[in-house]
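Cont'd.
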Amino acid sequence: MSHKLPRRVRLVLYGVLLVLLVPFVFPTWWMVTSSLKPASEIFAFPPSLWPENPGFGAYERVFDLQPFAQQYWNSMYIAVVVTIGTLAVSSMAGYAFARIRFRGQNALFLVVLTGLLIPSEVTIVPLFQMFNDWGMTDTHWPLVLVPVLGAPSVLATFIMRQFFITLPAELEEAARMDGLGRFAIYWRIALPLARPALAAVGIFTFLHSWNLYLEPIVYLSTPEKFTLPQALTQFTDAYGGPMWDVQLAAASLTALPVLAVFVFAQRQFVEGLAHTGLK
Amino acid sequence: MATLERARAKAAPPHPRGDGSRRPFWTARRRDQLAGYLFIAPQLLGSVLFVLIPLALVFWYSFHEWNVLAGSFRGVGADNYRALADDPKLPGVLRATAFFSVGLVVLNLGLALALAVLLNQKLRGSIVFRTLFFSPVVVSLVAWTIVWGFLLQKNGGINAGLDLVGVDGPNWLRGETSSMISVIVVQVFKNVGLNMVLFLAALQGVPRELYEAATVDGAGPWRRFLRITVPLISPTILLTSIITVVGSLQVFAQIAVLTQGGPGNSTTVLVYYLYQQAFEFHHFGYGATLSVLLFLIVLVLTVVQWQMRKKWVFHES
Amino acid sequence: MSSPARPSTRSTRSSRGTLTRGKPVALAAAGLLALTACGGSDGGSGSDDGPVTLRMTIWTGNEEHLKLLNGIAADYREQHPEVQEITFDTLPVESYTTALTTQIAGGKAPDLAWIFENSAPDFVTSGALAEIEDDPDVLPSAKKLWQHEDKLYAYPFSTSPFGVFVNTDMLKEAGRPAPAELIEQGRWTWEEVAQTGAAVRDETGEAGMVIRDFDYKLWDNLAAVWGGWGAAPWSEDGRTCTFDAPEMTEAMTFLHDAVFVDEALPAPGTTANFFAGEAAMTVTQISRASLLDDSFGWDFVPLPEGPAGSYDVIGQAGLGVLADGDNVEEAVDFLAFMTNEKNSAALGRYFPQARSSQLDAGTLAKSNPQLKPAQLEEVVIGGIENGVVKPTHTNQAELYDAVRAALDPLWQPDADVAKTLQDVCSAIQPQLEK
C-alpha cells in the first residue's frame, strides 16, 4: 500500500493533472466570479479572471426577485424524495432480477430496460396528456412519479442488478438456513452490503432530479412551485433579456452546495464503492 | 407492500426443514416466485404507465399527421415512414449522429479511465483533483455552454492558448468538422466526472497483490493495465459504456445552445432533428416517426452491447 | 376550430373531454389510460362550472412587467366579478414554443398567449387563435402580420423599430464624422457605414458595425440591411424565392465584402458587444436603449440608406386568444380591456405601442427616458408608421432553418455569393410552393 512514486514521476503527474484541470475548472470559476461582477463586465472580452469591484448585489436580488428560498426547498425536497423512492424501487427490482428466479424474468427485465432507451423529449407529450388528465399539472407529482417509477429509475435498477449479481450465493443460503424470508434476506443481508451501489445510484438520481429542466417548465406554472433550474430562467430584465449577474449568482447558489456535499461524501462514496464493489 | 412482505417473512415457519409430509400450496418455491413479482411490481407498473404507454402512443402518432396548432389529426397510414425514407436531410443527420456518438463515447470513456488511473496513484491532494474534475457535473448547463461559447470564438481563449504554442486555431464553431468536435468536447468535459468516479471506485477494488505478483513476473505497466486492470473493471466499463452510448443519443441542449445544428446541418443529430420537427416545425407525426427510429437505433445498440458482455465482461456468468 | 359555446358545455365537459376536444388522438390516449385503471380524477382547471379563471403564457419573468400585468388584471376583475382569477405563466424564452406546444397538445392550452413574431403566420393561419376585436387606433401596418382573411387574430402588443446605436467617442477616435453630421449632409448610407467600420477597426482595434443578434445564424435580422437595397427573401405572396434576385445579390455582396474585405463588421465566430463598449455601431431595436449606461457618448439614429433609399424595419410580438382554451369569450374580452387606450398606454412603458393616438414624441419620451425627442421622432414614429416586419412565412420555423443552413457557406472569406444565394433558393423553393 505504501508505494511512493519517485519524485520526478510525481512532478510529471501533477503537471499533467494541472493542465487537464483548466477546461474543467475555468467555466466554474467564471460562473462564480462573474456573479460578483456588474452586468456590463460579465461579457467583457477577453473574460476577466477576477472582478474589478466584486459585490454581492446580485445575490441579494436573487432573493428579491423570486421566491428563491421556496424554490430551493422545492428542488431539495423533490430531489430527496425522488432519491429515496428510487433507491427503494430500484434496489428491490434490481435484487429480484438478480437473485430471485421467477417465470418471465428475462422478458420482464427487457420490458423494464426499454425505459433506458427513450429520451424525455420523445414521451413528454403523452406524459403531459396523462398528468393533465389526472389533474396533476402544476403539482410536483409528475416530477416525483416519473423519475421514481418511470424511465429515469431504470438505470438505477440496472446498476443495482449488476451489483447484486456479484453477491456470493452462500450468504443467502446461510440466511435461508436461519429461516429468513425473501424480504428479510433483501433487507438485512443484501441491502447493507449494497451500500456502495446505493451511494452511486443515490448520487446519479439526486443530480438527475436536481438538474431536471424540460419537465418542470412544462408541468409547473406557479412561481412558488418552481424548481431551481426553472427559476434560473426567470431572472430577466425589462425587455425579456436575461439578467446575467443575477442568473449567474443563482446558478452559483445551486451548484455550490451540491459540490460541497460531494466534497464531504466522496471519500465514503468512492472508497465505499470500491470496498465491496460495483466493479 | 414492504410491510406485507415483512409480515410474511415473520409468519414463515422458522425451521422449514422439519416435517416434510404435508405439501402446502405455498411451497418455498412458489413463495419465492411471488416475492419476485412483488419486488419488481412498482418498477414494472411504472414502466408500463410511464414508458410503454407513452411509447405506444408515440408509435401510434407516427401513423398520423398531427399539427398541434391547427388541431388537425388524421391518419395517414405509413406516409410518415415513406417520408422518412425520402427525407433528403436524414442521411446527413444519421451521419452526424454516428460521428457525435462515437466521438463522445470514445473520448468520454478514454478520458474518464485515464483520469481515474492518474488519480488512483498515491498522490497527495488527489481528493482535491477529484473534486475539481467532478465539479462541472453540478454546474448549470446554461452557464457552462455560455462560457464555452466564449472560449470557442475565433479570438477566444482556446485559440489564445494554441497561439502560445504556435498553432493557428480554427474558427471552432464555424467549421463543419470543428464545430462537431467542439460540441463533443464541451459535452465530455461537462460529464466525464461521473464516469471517472465510477472507474475510480472500480480501480480501488482491484487487489494490489495482483499487481505485485504481476510485477514480480516481469509485466510492465501497460501489460499490467491490459491484463489485470481492464478485465477486473470490465463490468464497470460495460455499465459506463451503456450509460454513455444511450446518453450520447439523447443530448441536445448543448447543440441547441452552441450551434443550433449548424453550420449547414453538420451538428444536427437525431434528437435535435426530431425535436425540431415536432416542436419547432409542428410536424408532430413526423417527429414521432423519428422518435421510433431513434428508439430502434438505441435498442439495437444496447442489445449488441448487452450481448457483448458475455464475451468481455469478467464477472457475468 | 371549436366553437366556444361556453355556459352549456362547461358543466358537462370532464377533464377528459377537455383533452379530447378537436383531437381524436386523445380519445385513444384516454382509452389506453383507462386500461391502466388509474385515470379519471376530475381535475381540469377552468373547465368546471362556476367562476372563470384565465391563464396567459408570457416569456417575461420581469418583476415590473408582472406588476403591470397583474395590476391590469386586478382592475379587470373588479369590473368582472365572474372572472375569479387571472394568472400569468412565465415560460422561459428559449423553451417558450416547446412548452406552449406541449401544453396545447396535452389539452391544457392557455387562454391567452404571447406569440413570437416568427411564429405569427403559423398561429394566425392555422386556426389556433380566436378572432379578436379590431381596434382602429392600431396602425394598419402593425396589424398586417396578425391578420388572416381580413380578420385580426392577435394584438401587436410590442412594435419596436430598428435603428442604429452609435458610440460617438469611438468614431471620434477613429477620425470619422458622426452619423448625425452625415444625416444632415444626406450621406448616411451603408457605404459610409462600411468605411467608418473599417476605420474604427484600423484605428482602435474594436469592431465597427454589429448587426445585433444576427451572429451569422439568425438571418432575419439582416432585413435591417437588405431593406436598403429593396431586397426581400421571397415574393409578396410568399410563393417565389427572391434570394437570388439582383438586389439581394447586391446587398449580400456588399455585406460579404464589408465583413471579409473591409472588416467593417466582426467576422463569424467573434463577439463584440456594443453596450460593453466593444463596437462603434450596432443595428438593433430601440428597446435595447435600456442597456446603455454613461460609460461612453452615444447617439441613436435611423437605419442608413441603401441604393434603394431609406426604409424602416420593425420587430413585433403579438398577444392572442387560443381558440382551444376553455373561456374564449372572456379571454377575448379581457384582451380588449388589456389593450384599451388607458392600459395600452401603460403597456407602452415597456412595449412600444403602434397606436396613432400614442405616436407622438411626448408620449414616447415618457417611456424612453434615455432618448431625446428628436431621436424618437426620427426613428420611432417613422419606423412604426412605415416599418416592414422582419420576413415571415407560414411554416416559418422549418423555412428559417433551411435558409440558415443554406446561407452558412456564404460566411466564408472565399464564398461565391451569387451561387450560394441560388442554392438557398433551390433549397427553399419547394417549401415555398407547398
